[in-house]
Structures are given as C-alpha cells and as structure tokens.
Amino acid sequence: MKKFVSLIAAMLLSLTVFAQPRALGGRFAAGVEFSYQHDIGKNFIELDLGYNQATGFGLTAIYDFICATPAWTSKGSWDLYAGPGISLGTYFKTIPFAAGVCGQVGLSYTFWFPLQLSVDFRPMIGVGRSSDGTSFHAVGLLGFIPTAGVRYSFGQK
C-alpha cells in the first residue's frame, strides 16, 4: 500500500511540474545557445548551453523575476524580466575552466500562438583556472552585447 501511495504522489507531482508553462529554443548573438525556460509561479528559470567561437562552451542557470507585464498589445503578452544566475564554462586555451556570477535583463513577447521572441543583456564576471593559476576573467562582460532569443512556448500563459 505504501508503494502505491508513493507512486500516486510521484505521478501527481510530475503532472504539476509538467503542467507549468515552459519554452524551448535558442539565443543568438556572438554565439549560439540552446535555451530552456520553465515557469515557477510568476517568475521563471532559464537554462542555457552555448558555444561562442571567441570564448568557448558555457552553461548558465538564471532565476528571472518578471518585473513588469506591459499591456502594449491586445494579443500575446510582454514581459520585462531581470535576475541573477551562475555560469560555468571553458574558454579554450586561455582558461580551461571558469565559473562566475551573471545577471540578466531582458524583454520578451509571447505571441498568442506558441512562439516567444526576446532580447536581453547578460554580463558575467568570475574566476578562471588555467595552467598559470587562478585568475579573474572578464570575457563574460561581453554579455552587454544584445542577444536575441527565439523559443517554442509550451503551455500558454
């Protein structure tokens, strides 16, 4: 009986998690990132895995707060968001491993059909570890370059 109750509880929990709106797509600027967003209440978590020819590979996780929802159009929804996050990456020969904190500020529009467009800025600062030792790296400060995002939105808001 305990196993049956645990199984039912796990199924209900998974339905609750997967019932939340989410989006899947990419971010494009100096590089390309695979992007996943998952709503948590009014806010959302964004996970990005990307590649930039100048810097390397990176994984970023951000908790974004919806700061405002302007009513600029009668269809679809606008969101102004900002939030803190962490980033891990490799920056090729100069810094084989780097970790840092980042911030993101952006604006997104989710159409009345399942498409979301966004533009944001994501600067990052942190430390890197190389054969020369540990050092500060500011490669992530290139995050001040505007980044465009295109995502398929599952579960409309």
Helix and strand topology:
Blueprint lengths: L1 H17 L3 E7 L3 E9 L2 E10 L3 E13 L8 E15 L3 E16 L4 E7 L2 E7 L2 E5 L9 E8 L3
Antiparallel strand pairs: 1-2, 1-10, 2-3, 3-4, 4-5, 5-6, 6-7, 6-8, 7-10, 8-9
Could you characterize what this model shows?
By secondary structure, the chain is mainly β. It contains one helix and ten strands; from the N terminus they run αββββββββββ. The protein has one helix at residues 2-18; strands at residues 22-28, 32-40, 43-52, 56-68, 77-91, 95-110, 115-121, 124-130, 133-137, 147-154. An eight-stranded antiparallel β-barrel has the order 1-2-3-4-5-6-7-10. A hairpin with a 3-residue loop joins β1 (22-28) and β2. The longest helix is centred in the N-terminal third of the chain and has 17 residues, at 2-18. The model has no long low-confidence stretch (mean pLDDT 82).
Kindly list the characteristics that best describe this protein.
157 residues, mainly beta, 8-stranded antiparallel β-barrel, 1 helix, 10 strands, globular
- Name the helix and strand elements from N-terminus to C-terminus, one letter apiece: HEEEEEEEEEE
Total E-strand runs? 10
Instruction: Round the mean pLDDT to the nearest integer and report it.
Output: 82
Low-confidence stretches: none
The multimeric state of the shown protein is: single chain
Strand order, largest beta sheet: 1-2-3-4-5-6-7-10
Profile the largest sheet: 8 strands, antiparallel, barrel
Helix content: 10-25%
Radius of gyration: 18 Å
Distance between the termini: 38 Å
User: What would you call the shape?
Assistant: globular
Alpha-beta classification: mainly beta
What is the helix tally? 1
Kindly estimate the percentage of residues that lie in beta strands according to DSSP: over 45%
